[in-house]
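__Protein archive entry__

___
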Amino acid sequence: MTRASDSSYLSKSTTPILVEITRAAQSIQTDVASIQTVQIGNAPIDLTSFVATSSGSSVSLRANDERICTVTGHVLTLLELGTCSFTASQDGTDNFEPASEVVVTLTVIPKVEPIIVPEKPKTENATIAKNQLKAPTVPATVTTSRILKFTMKTSSGTPLTVSASGSCKVSKVTKVITTRVKVKGKMALKKSTLQTGWSLSFPKRGKCRATFRSSGNQYFFPLAVTKQIRVK
């Protein structure tokens, strides 16, 4: 640009100034200490609050082994026991350079299965449910004319069995209870659980050994509790 000369000013040329603007660096930050060990069977995990960039740009996530876990958007779903890992990346923006990828590793463990039973039943026909104890409350001593009746279930819905030896025998009746399960706010799936009732009788004097057992499955540990009862 040149200004024309006149009686007061001399003509003068302007020199352009070149300014190089570079993109700033950014990094991916993770805060997964609270979910480094997760139980199979848990609800999907929203990772939005656990993985972010220093620039505030959105992060892309991908699962490294989809046999163990999958990532859809920012939601992590656990499929099998083992090591779940996913990679976080940010490809850069107009103002920020791409961030270095970060690999996050989680350990998927079995879900511990408690047995749900009540406190001491008030009657012999009490329903065993709700309170967490190791086994049904049964008397230490019974007579041969006595019959104990009860029902039991596990919090996971896995079947429970009762076996007896010695001076007692057990009878079992099983029925299927079907309930509807909500999936993403919709009543979509049916869940069937087994409800089993038992009758424990004592035909002769001696010692009775009753064992309450859950075989478990791929998500839950097996459990077994044994009670000793004296029959007189």
The first strand starts at residue 2 and ends at 3.
